[in-house]
Write a structure and sequence with these properties.
Radius of gyration: 23 Å
Oligomer: single chain
Largest sheet: 5 strands, parallel
Strand content: 5-15%
Mean pLDDT: 96
Distance between the termini: 55 Å
Number of helices: 21
Length: 496
């Protein structure tokens, strides 16, 4: 009989569980965006520290602001904020552990003041974020703050002290109160997978604050650190199959376990207002400059994920490991890394790039992760402009190779049409842009460059003849010959 996960049931569970006294853990971090990645990454590192008897004053209080977060609130309440983290090794073995570093969860729409009270408590010294690329409200074309979101507009226009609706609203209102009360600032620590995540959080949150209170924005500029970080761990969405496998193999009934690959990496800029946990004691690389590491990941790992996602899906695959296990597509991804991604990178201290790239292909090919191509291909309007467009721009500027990266953009356009090569429908997931992207993609062949016309996503690339010539040729080939034949042609005629 399965045992529902709870604090009281830990003694009945056979997998490793927190050996530290969770009742002695106090909140030091408020985290917005508790999902699979946060629980496989930041919360896991803190749990490791707590197992060493450290960081017991750095427990996590999760916060959800979206309607979709209500389910997380229900699960965490039922399970005393505990969850099971399952590492899936390529050989089929599993390592499971119950994580205890999250000690509270607040669903903001139910009690906004409870969230603000937690954030203004002097014990809260870090507010961390995994709110996805779109959660920063940054225009992809201008880099400026985009305030068109209705909830953001409502928070900007709201009276001082009013209950916020958005993450930005909570962060800025909490900082306003801390400034007024003399509590001092907390650090805003972005853990999102975007280039210069600390810089972006700083610029966008300060721009939001400036629309509400210019003096407060000046205070934030002067006093609130926004450290950059690079985060990495492949963490697919939890499925019913994952829940059933955990129950059958361990006897744990967990409504929302997290499954992930064994590999994990976190590179963190050492810039904090009121201290931090000793992350370096559990393998975090605490450095002065994160940029070389984050560009390495964004332009090699993340861009390669996009490469295998669209092309693999169009070719009939549905999981990342299937595409990465196909020599043709794996070779294409590695050639993109070597010929187009790597030339845009500065030296990365302490990293052998050849080893790193080989490891990426191995990670993609882990059959146990079962990461879906649909997940990798989602929210492309937030991802491609950040991960791949800069590679194209840099290589165009100095005459470098662009064929493979341009094919990825063409494959996105072909995927966005919403029908695969077998005539089966594709569910295009791209929050706020899916209909526009699909409508633009379907204007092919009458308007072959329609997909590129959105300057918020592509800037002036549509005006570059070298790029558009390659794009049109690839898009034509994808329609005429299919993804596999198009990739095979590129790999046959281009240097590796």
């Amino acid at each position: 009989m399965a045992t529902p996960l709870s604090q009281a049931a830990l003694g009945e569970i056979d997998v490793p569980t927190p050996s530290y006294d969770r009742s002695a853990v106090s909140v030091g971090i408020v985290h917005f965006g508790v999902g699979g990645f946060h629980r496989a990454h930041q919360a896991m590192y803190l749990d490791r520290l707590m197992e060493q008897g450290q960081a017991l004053d750095w427990g996590i209080c999760g916060v959800g602001v979206l309607e979709a977060d209500r389910r997380m609130a229900e699960v965490t309440e039922a399970q005393d904020d505990l969850y099971t983290l399952v590492l899936k090794h390529a050989d089929g073995s599993r390592d499971a552990r119950v994580i205890g570093s999250v000690v509270d969860y607040l669903y903001a729409p139910d009690d906004p003041e409870a969230v603000l009270e937690r954030m203004t408590d002097p014990a809260t010294r870090i507010v961390s974020l995994t709110v996805t690329e779109g959660g920063y409200h940054q225009s992809a074309s201008t880099g400026e703050f985009d305030d068109r979101d209705p909830a953001i507009r409502a928070d900007i226009d709201a009276a001082e002290g009013a209950a916020p609706q958005t993450t930005f609203g909570y962060v800025v209102e909490a900082l306003r109160r801390r400034r007024a009360e003399g509590t001092g600032p907390f650090t805003v620590m972005s853990c999102d997978n975007i280039q210069g995540n600390g810089h972006v959080a700083h610029a966008m949150i300060t721009a939001y604050a400036r629309r509400k209170d210019p003096e407060l924005a000046d205070w934030i500029e002067a006093n609130v650190p926004f450290p950059n970080s690079m985060v990495d761990r492949i963490t697919p969405r939890t499925t019913d199959e994952d829940r059933a496998e955990l129950r059958d193999s361990t006897g744990i009934e967990d409504a929302w376990p997290v499954v992930c690959e064994p590999f994990t990496q976190w590179v963190l800029e050492d810039r904090f207002a009121a201290g931090r946990p000793p992350f370096e004691d559990v393998g975090v690389q605490v450095v002065d400059d994160v940029e070389p590491y984050e560009l390495m990941k964004l332009r090699l790992l993340n861009a390669s994920h996009q490469a295998i996602a669209y092309l693999g899906y169009l070719a009939g695959y549905r999981y990342a490991h299937e595409v990465a296990g196909d020599e043709l597509f794996a070779g294409f991804a590695r050639a993109y890394m070597d010929r187009e991604g790597t030339p845009t990178l500065a030296p990365v201290p302490g990293v052998d790039l050849d080893d790193y790239k080989a490891t990426l292909i191995e990670r993609f090919a882990n059959p146990e992760i079962r990461d879906t191509l649909a997940r990798l291909a989602a929210e492309s309007s937030d991802r491609i402009p950040t991960w791949l467009v800069p590679v194209i721009r840099i290589n165009l500027s100095h005459g470098g190779e662009i064929e493979r990266s341009t094919l990825v953009v063409a494959a996105w356009a072909r995927y966005a049409e919403g029908v695969d090569e077998a005539g089966e429908p594709i569910e295009v997931v791209d929050t706020g842009r899916a209909e526009d992207r699909t409508a633009a993609a379907r204007r092919y062949p009458d308007e072959p460059l329609a997909f590129l016309a959105d300057r918020d996503l592509f800037g002036d690339l549509v005006d570059d003849e070298r790029f558009t010539t390659a794009y049109r040729a690839h898009l034509d080939a994808l329609h005429r010959d299919g993804a596999r034949a198009t990739v095979a042609d590129i790999e046959a005629r281009l240097p590796r």
